């Protein structure tokens, strides 16, 4: 791990975490290509790199918390008040409950897939194929959304459960978390902006949980002392800054344009990476 690599990874994470293009796939591609062109292709992903990936996600989590600070504050206050009064009719309290419920279903689906998903980090060709799958999911969601023109900005119990399940399936690198959750939201009749906002808010508990659980259960403190913390901190800060502006401009984009643009991107990039790493790397 060096500073140049950390800067590249920070930019990639910040750009791809919130776009429906799979940040995990981009991190796999970036790391694999970097190793290929620097002659380190046979070096397996180290514990430092795994920890760095977690920190990059923590950086984008901070970006979400800052950008949606009012929404997060309103939801937290409404939930606390509803717990006291036992009245959950408030829209923010309902949204908070749906986020908790969605997170529960995410864990229920993602946990059994954990070991398989982690192994795919070493398989950029397979990751490329899964990214192509994400592209087709985005195409299908836009087709269905246009066919059934009625849209709503209200997240329902059913859509919360389905979106949570979709987020769990997206544990596989190449299956974009934001792509699958937004596509499922469109399938459920939500408008694009609501899909995007709910997807971002739903990412908070799962990223926060991952960022806390992995260091507590997996990290070796003595080994961590040898990590390049300068590179890790720089990459984390960059991912947060880039992620913040990505959220801002992506919300403006989805308010006007189709997700099919990202579908084409996923199909083209995924196909190229699958072919390259299968036959040339």
Order of helices and strands: HHHHHHHHHHHH
The shape is globular
- How many domains, in number, for the residues? 1
Largest sheet: none
Structural class by SSE content:
mainly alpha
What is the average of the pLDDT values? 90
Number of extended strands: 0
Distance between the termini: 21 Å
Low-confidence parts lasting 5 or more residues at pLDDT below 50? Answer: none
Helix content: over 70%
What is the radius of gyration? Answer: 19 Å
Quaternary form: single chain
- Percent strand equals under 5%
Tally the helices: 12
Protein described:
- The chain is mainly α and 281 residues long.
- The protein has one domain (3-279).
- Helices cover 78% and strands 0% of the residues.
- It has twelve helices and no strands.
- The protein has helices spanning 3-16, 23-37, 47-67, 69-85, 91-119, 124-147, 157-169, 177-187, 192-217, 221-224, 229-254, 260-279.
- The longest helix has 29 residues, at 91-119.
């Amino acid at each position: 791990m060096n500073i140049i690599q950390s800067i590249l990874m920070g930019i990639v994470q910040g750009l791809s975490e919130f776009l429906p293009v799979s940040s995990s796939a981009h991190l796999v591609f970036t790391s694999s290509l970097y190793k290929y062109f620097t002659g380190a292709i046979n070096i397996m992903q180290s514990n430092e790199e795994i920890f760095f990936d977690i920190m990059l996600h923590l950086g984008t989590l901070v970006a979400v918390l800052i950008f949606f600070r009012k929404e997060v504050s309103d939801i937290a206050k409404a939930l606390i008040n509803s717990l006291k009064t036992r009245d959950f009719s408030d829209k923010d309290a309902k949204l908070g409950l749906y986020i908790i419920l969605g997170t529960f279903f995410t864990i229920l689906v993602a946990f059994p897939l954990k070991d398989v998903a982690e192994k795919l980090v070493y398989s950029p060709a397979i990751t490329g194929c899964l990214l192509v799958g994400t592209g087709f999911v985005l195409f299908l969601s836009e087709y269905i959304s246009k066919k059934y023109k009625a849209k709503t900005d209200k997240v329902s119990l059913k859509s919360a459960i389905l979106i949570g399940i979709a987020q769990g399936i997206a544990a596989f690198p190449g299956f974009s978390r934001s792509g699958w959750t937004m596509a499922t939201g469109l399938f459920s009749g939500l408008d694009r902006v609501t899909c995007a906002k709910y997807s971002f808010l739903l990412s908070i508990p799962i990223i926060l949980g991952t960022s806390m659980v992995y260091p507590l259960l997996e990290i070796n403190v003595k080994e961590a002392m040898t990590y390049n913390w300068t590179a890790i901190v720089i990459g984390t800060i960059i991912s947060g800054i880039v992620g913040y502006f990505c959220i801002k401009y992506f919300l403006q984009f989805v308010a006007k344009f189709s997700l099919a643009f990202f579908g084409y991107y996923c199909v083209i990039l995924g196909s190229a990476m699958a072919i390259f790493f299968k036959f040339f790397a």
